[in-house]
Amino acid sequence: MKCLRPGPLAGLSLILACCSPGLDQRPTSWTETTTGMEFVRIEPGSFEMGSPVDEPYREDQELLHRVTLTRFFYMGRFEVTQGVWETVMGENPSQFRDCGSDCPVENVNLFDIEKFVAALEGLSGEKFRLPTEAEWEYACRAGGRSVFGIGERVSSARANFDGRDPFPGAEPGPYRTRPTPVGSFAENAWGLHDMNGNVWEWTQDDHCPYPEYPVVDPLARCGAEFRVIRGGSWYFGPDSARCALRYIHRPVDDGPSLGFRLVWEPTLNPGRGEP
Known about the structure:
The protein is of the alpha+beta class. Helix content is 13%, strand content 17%. The protein has one domain (37-265): paralog of FGE (formylglycine-generating enzyme). It is built from four helices and twelve strands; from the N terminus they run αβββββααβαββββββ. A five-stranded antiparallel β-sheet has the order 1-2-5-12-6, covered by helices on one side. The chain has a four-stranded mixed β-sheet with strand order 10-9-7-11. It has a three-stranded mixed β-sheet with strand order 3-4-8, covered by helices on one side. The longest helix has 15 residues, at 110-124. Residues 1-23 and 269-275 have low confidence and may be disordered.
């Protein structure tokens, strides 16, 4: 018996009914049926968050420290699109509306996203949230230690950032002047697209200094004025698209390179035996 992929008539209880009784009953992916958003299961684990001192463009705030994530989570395979936003909210705030429904929604701030999540939860009956900063970097690295997660030296031929001034060791690439449809470039090892470039992605975390010691399931709260965004964008260069790069915005800020992706939180979490 195989795990069932959700369809119009498949409820969560059916989706989670897999063949290993009492063990791993979690689907490896899940699709929200109202919007078609796809989510990929990311397994728990430990990794070195931040960057080594010899990484090109490294910033002092990227202090290497050990992070352990104790529970699985479901990361959006793609950035949230204009089509998904319009399905849920009935309007489209994006500056690049002519890019099409498969392009990432942009020009959204944290309060806009809160309203979107509330509306989506009302439609679907499921729970969603932004990723933590640690979850985001863990997913970007996809089990490796390369600068970009998809390689050590990446040009904008492989991701949507401004590649005219290339990353050291990479070839020059195009500057596309706008977002591209999600999934235009190859996925990383864990099946996630556009973790490097396209639009910046909001996270839950305040912009706090990294700890100098190992941490477990971190969510940074320090009363900071700024929140962390990750991943770079079409407007910025390759330095911003590194997995370790931390950038910031106020929660009220929006703009044509600011977007997001979501985490789905199943009602039942068999990995920990709790809701």
